[in-house]
Amino acid sequence: MDLSKAKTLLIIAFLSLNIFLGYKLWIAPRSLSPSSVLTQAQLEQTEALLKEHGFDLKTALPRQIPRLALLNVSRLVQDDAYWVSAFLGAQEVWSQRQEDRTVYTTGQETLTIFANGHVFYTNNLPGIDEANTRVLAERYLRDWKLWQNNMKLDLAVPWGQHGFRYRFVETYQGFPLFFSAIEVYLTDGRPREVHIYQVQPHGFSDKETAVISAQKAVQTFIKEAAAVSSKSIIDISLGYYSLSYDAERWESAPVWRIATQDGGESYINAFTGEVEKTTF
């Protein structure tokens, strides 16, 4: 091989490598920038603590203790016509304006759009011969044109005697936004209820701070665990959570979310260690 051809091949290989690495950086989740990790002894101590209080840990305990920043978000605003078209289509619709909401109904279906951005859909349509699966829930989301590529299934828990509740959350740079979600309640093959609240992420703030460890989050959870009915923990993960605010833009803090098999959840602020919300 002559020298000029060898140089050309090396240049092509170098450019290809740079393109590949740039692509990986573009699609990869935000780096966790770990400041430290839990030791094996700390993992075992945490698992023993849960067992001591009667909890069955059915998921891996996260080891990383990363540095994270606040996430800037705003409420995702859609006009009423968007939601009416998605859920009720071209049917004849009656509407009623109430204090903090507008209710649209077709007789068998009801769509309620709240001023704070929450959207509820319910129906009493006849059941169909379909299993109440995740695939069916996703199909409904696609039919309503609500499915997004950055969504993922977060929880699937029993609902009622034969139904299931599927919650799909938005993700941002690899992190689940637990408060930006669509919940589909399926029974008899029908989406009997749909609850929606979504935000628009606008990037992280500049300042990064080390979060508390999953071990410390579990210790806080144990203190609040008196009201927990299910003793099976199915998920411990790091993401973002916020209450809904009447503001154009606000900051969301990272949280440790601990979820039990019956759908109960505890959101623990990953900066302060305080409980943000529980649904037990």
Describe this structure in words.
The protein is built from 5 helices and 18 strands. α2 (40-52) runs parallel beside α5 (214-223). β17 (265-269) and β18 form a beta hairpin. The protein has 2 domains: 33-73 and 208-278, Lipocalin (Beta Barrel), CATH 2.40.128; 77-197, TATA-Binding Protein (2-Layer Sandwich), CATH 3.30.310. The longest helix is centred in the N-terminal third of the chain and has 25 residues, at 3-27. The model is unreliable at 5-29 (pLDDT under 50). The chain is an alpha+beta fold and 280 residues long. It has an 8-stranded antiparallel beta sheet with strand order 5-6-7-8-12-11-10-9, with helices on one face.
Give the overall shape: globular
Number of helices: 5
Can you identify the CATH class of the largest domain? Alpha Beta
User: What structural class do helix, strand and pairing data support?
Assistant: alpha+beta
Percent helix, as a range, is: 10-25%
What is the ordering of alpha helices and beta strands? Answer: HEHEEEHEEEEHEEEEEEHEEEE
Major sheet: size, sense and barrel closure? 8 strands, antiparallel
CA distance, first residue to last residue: 71 Å
How many whole angstroms does the radius of gyration measure? 23 Å
The named CATH superfamily of the largest domain: YycH protein, domain 2
Overall average residue pLDDT: 88
Q: How many domains would you count in the coordinates?
A: 2
Runs with pLDDT <50, length 5+? 5-29
Oligomer: single chain
Q: Give the strand tally.
A: 18
Quote the beta fraction. 35-45%
The CATH topology assignment of the largest domain is TATA-Binding Protein
**CATH architecture label name of the largest domain:** 2-Layer Sandwich
Widest sheet, order of strands: 5-6-7-8-12-11-10-9
